[in-house]
Amino acid sequence: MTSQDGVSEQSDALREHLSRSRVLVIFASERDDSRIAEQKRIISRMGSGANERDIAVREIVGAAAEAEAMRRKLGAPESGFQAVLVGKDGGAKLQSPQPLTADKLEATIDAMPMRRREMQER
Q1: Is residue 44 part of a domain?
Q2: How far apart, in whole angstroms, are the C-alpha atoms of residue 8 and residue 4?
Q3: Does 24 fall in a domain?
Q4: What is the domain range of residue 100?
Q5: Could you tell me the CATH number of the domain that includes residue 55?
């Protein structure tokens, strides 16, 4: 089966997280882009805050067909670094050409209606 953008559903890096996790997708043209490591450090330092907010991280590196399809799907530029926060509904919620700060991620997620419900239920 194929989704609208031509990416098979099984290979869609976001499908497995739909409704369970918010995914921070890190796009980069090259594996050695220092912004990948910086973004991962930011998430790591968030510790339990990242866990509470159900944040998963996926790296999409290079220009293979699947990477290009994912960039189109999330509105990321064709090349270079881009961090995209995807909500549990599968929609892009926040984008940046630089690593996203913990404060920005937390504030954006905490303002989401689904997150508000989660906080009330806990």
Answers
A1: yes
A2: 9
A3: yes
A4: 9-121
A5: 3.40.30.10
Q: How many CB atoms lie within 10 A of CB 85?
A: 22
Place of tokens 């926060």: 85
Tell me the whole-structure pTM to 2 decimals.
Answer: 0.86
Per-residue pLDDT of the chain (122 residues; tens, 9 = 90+): 333 333 333 346 688 888 889 999 999 999 999 999 999 999 999 999 999 999 999 999 998 998 999 999 999 999 999 999 999 999 999 999 999 999 999 999 999 988 888 888 87
Backbone dihedral angles phi then psi of residue 56, each to the nearest 5 degrees: -115, 150
Q: Do 10 and 54 contact (CB within 8 A), yes or no?
A: no
Number of domains into which the chain is organized: 1
